[in-house]
Amino acid sequence: MRIKNTLINLIYIWGSALLLLGLNLLSRRIFLNVLTVDYLGYDGLFTSIFSFLTLSEMGIASIITYHMYSEIATNNTQQIRKLLYIYKMIYKIVGSFVLVAGVVTSLFLPFILKEQMAGEDRLFIYTIYYLQLLATICTYFLAYRRILFVTHQKIYFCTTVDTLMSIVSTSLKIFVLIRFQSYVGYLLVAVANNIISNLIIAWWSRKKYPEITKVKISKADIKELNLGHDVKNMMATKIAGTIYGSSDDIIISGMLGIGTVGMVSNYRMISAKIQELIISIFSALQASIGNLVYADEEKKGVSFFGALDLAGFYMGLVAATGMIVVGQDFIFFWLAKSELQLPLSFLFMLSANVFVAICNNPMTYFRNTLGHFETDRDYMIAAAVVNVAISLILAPIVGITGIMFGTVIGHLLIFMGRTVVVYKYYVKEKPYSYYAKFLFRMVLLGITAFAALRISSLFTIDILLGSIIVKGIISVIVATAVFLASSFKMNDFQTLVSYIEKVIEMVLRKKKAKGNM
Question: Computed over its alpha carbons, how large is the radius of gyration of the chain?
Fold first, then answer.
């Protein structure tokens, strides 16, 4: 049943991601033809500001989610109802705080955007700021019931709604850009999409889970969950994670200009879509991991973790190698403007960060399911401090590459902390052997990228799209060869193959059953 639900989730998520990828690429190309790259910079900067404001959420979503997995495993409907409505109550408080804090923060925009506020219409900048603030707070008031689909392994319900709404909204955005050339109209469509999709999912969740009805929550219920203990430990992690994840755009804006933020966003969009496609595999498995952890299947779970970790390495190797080899060509093919290309050294650092992110995902999902938020707290704090320090030191020297280097080093520290949690509380081993293994994997990434670049340079193809396709195929072949050569003798590899065989067998059996009908 776990494999079946995971497979259904994955099909929906991948289908959605691929469809939306095409639309988003077209939308971004039209956006940059109609408007300037600075508008993308505003989007990135304001998103980073709102990330700091949403610190008030204190990681409640993660805490409630891991509590809910254990209750679903024992089918405790009453406790699930309480958890959901505690979640709703806290999110209303957080949403109200973010609204007030957002209004107060807007008073400081003239200091953050000195040149832009002096040279452009202040009303326009305030308008786009408040529209993005509205889109942010909508999530806190409307999206709380999504958690039911996630924890019940039915995330494909949310994916279906989000995909259909995104198709409509992206199409409308393209129309608004072409017909009206209006960034404000573009943002209004995004806000409407957020509101409508969350309302539909909330309605659908009530139909799907009619037993999860409103329930009165007492102080005793909240105290029983020991949320104070978890929030206290999560808060430092949340603050550090937000500083780590959101400081880059603010530093780039202050030291390199708002236009550079926009240029970086183009590269991030591609890397984010690649990660979305790959990480969706692990996302589809999140509830299965929660069930394994809380269903006393520890031996099976550890074996499953080893297989997922190896799969993460393979997918990270393919993705990062492909980005290094074809990244610059794709940016030029997509946007048709060489001035929107950033240095190759930045692309190397971004690709390394994608590699760490994808390899990190199996560890992240097990870590989130286990809880123990205090254990990797210091690693998160160190990651935030190191990222900001390195970025500030290197930005004046090597520009955007130095900021991205700080991001990679910080990400490695986060990875180390999550490894400590999983190995201490689940694998029950010291993590040092895993650190050595990952260091070796980083070396393999360097070898793979170098080999793929050298082999690709032997082929000269005049048509840019043809060159991208050939280089992409070479990247996949070289990465696959390196992965097989380094992994095929491992026990984890055999476990991974057995899971793949089960999935294939299930698909073939389902196909055969349909054929006999």
Answer: 23
